[in-house]
Write a structure and sequence with these properties.
Blueprint: H1 14-27, E1 33-34, H2 46-57, H3 70-84, E2 93-96, H4 99-110, E3 116-121, H5 125-132, E4 137-142, H6 153-159, E5 164-170, H7 182-193, E6 198-202, H8 218-221, E7 229-234, E8 247-250, H9 253-264, H10 272-283, H11 287-308, E9 323-324, E10 335-336, E11 339-340, H12 344-355, E12 357-358, E13 360-361, E14 371-374, H13 379-394
Parallel strand pairs: 1-12, 3-4, 3-5, 5-6, 6-7
Antiparallel strand pairs: 2-8, 7-8, 9-14, 10-11, 13-14
Helix pairs in contact: 2-10, 3-10, 4-5, 4-9, 6-7, 11-13
The protein binds pyridoxal-5'-phosphate.
């Protein structure tokens, strides 16, 4: 059988693949220290679960409008107004099966061959493949640890060619945890004012920040960009609801209508029950987030300190999200039991096989010589993982 040529443009998500490998080893009874997963390890708050149970008991188990129930679209528009001071009508909000699905719909609705999608690297793995499947060209702007993995206005200016249709910004960022300050966002916004492209702000980690850092949306700070801003967010990370699959996008009416049409001809509505749960999340108390962030903060400090004490490893302190992204460049070229560690892929492979520690190679995020570790796991697992990585590195020749 010959598959459609578009399938040659994508590969399975490497983060999900590592996670699947770690889970398979665990199933065999192996004591894996798994740092691959991109999901909080907390239970979904009880009031949210109760809302879903109520929906089932009341028979709210049928199709809903394809773009989501009006109450949830309204609640999201209200929350965006409260949190970001941006005005979107409920009709400009489309509820989808996760923020990933929202971005997929936007890309499908807006992009075609000849267009470019621009984003800073390291980047969330799916932007590149989701762009490529539309036949648009994904373009990454490389950043460096010296710049805390943040793109500068000059770099952005150089990359903003007329064929750039969408610029994607993810702050705080997966995989680096880096986030842009108010001033940095305004400076990037000033550059974007001069170029007529859409801006997709993937705000999925905006509630998870540390040391008093506040995540802003660029359109809040640079009002001139509001007409072409697409705000993407969801409940997966902030309410520990990854499995419920609810996310959303708010943006220009024409684009959102097209995304809704696409959804009506593909998945139809996201789960009616999960929408009721998300409504409880969006309109309910947020104290859960504060507690989760406190736990993440303790783990972040543990990881950063532990990793920096391993020779050949250097790690920046992230501003948000729940990942650390250390450099292992000081280890590349060394040997483990005779095998040369040629790159981050070999490092991750050997670490899992030999020490049962699952990490994602930085290459998956467009950044060689680094690895990503998620700290959405217990302090005990982090300590165990650090000990094993230190053992592994000590055995290098
Ligand atoms: C940067 C980023 N955006 C979007 C998503 C998608 O989140 P979801 O589809 O679970 O809402 C993720 C998930 O890992 C992510 O890291």
């Amino acid at each position: 059988m010959k598959l459609a040529s578009r399938m040659e443009r994508i590969k399975p998500s490497p983060t999900l693949a590592i996670d699947a490998r770690a889970k398979a080893l665990k199933k065999e009874g192996k004591d894996v220290a798994a740092f691959g997963a991109g999901e909080p390890d907390f239970d979904t708050p009880d009031h949210i679960k109760q809302a879903a149970i109520k929906a089932i008991q009341e028979g709210f188990t049928k199709y809903t409008p394809a773009a989501g129930v009006p109450e949830l679209r309204e609640a999201v528009a209200k929350r965006i107004k409260q949190d970001l001071d941006l005005d979107y009508a409920a009709g400009q909000v489309v509820i989808s099966c996760g923020a990933k699905h929202s971005i997929y719909n936007i890309f499908q609705a807006a992009l075609q061959e000849g267009d470019k999608v621009l984003y800073p690297a390291p980047y969330w793995v799916s932007y590149a493949d989701m762009a490529a499947i539309t036949f648009a060209e994904p373009v990454a702007i490389p950043t460096s640890p010296a710049a805390h993995f943040l793109v500068t206005p000059q770099q952005l200016e150089r990359h903003l060619t007329p064929d750039v249709k969408i610029f994607v910004l993810n702050s705080p960022c997966n995989p680096t945890g880096s986030a842009y300050s108010r001033e940095q966002l305004i400076a990037l916004g000033e550059v974007l004012k001069k170029h007529d492209c859409l801006i997709l702000s993937d705000d999925i980690y905006d509630a998870i920040t540390f040391d008093g850092f506040k995540a802003y949306n660029m359109a809040t700070l640079v009002p001139a960009l509001r007409d072409r801003m697409i705000v993407v967010n969801g409940v997966s990370k902030s309410f520990s609801m990854t499995g419920w699959r609810i996310g959303w996008a708010a943006g220009p009416r024409m684009l959102m209508d097209a995304a809704a049409d696409l959804q009506s001809q593909s998945t139809s509505n996201p789960s009616s029950i999960a929408q009721k749960a998300a409504l409880a999340a969006v309109t309910g108390p947020r104290d859960f987030i504060g507690k989760m962030v406190e736990a993440f903060d303790r783990r972040r400090k543990l990881f950063v300190e532990g990793l920096n004490s391993i020779p050949g490893v250097t790690c920046l302190k992230p501003h948000g999200a729940f990942y650390v992204f250390p450099s292992i460049e000081g280890i590349i070229g060394k040997r483990y039991k005779g095998r040369v560690i040629e790159d981050d892929n070999v490092f991750a492979d050997l670490l899992l096989a030999e020490k049962l520690v699952a990490v994602v190679p930085g290459s998956a995020f467009g950044c060689k010589g680094f690895i990503r570790l998620s700290y959405a796991t217990s302090e005990e697992t982090i300590r165990k993982g650090l000990d094993r990585i230190a053992d592994f590195v000590e055995a290098l020749e």
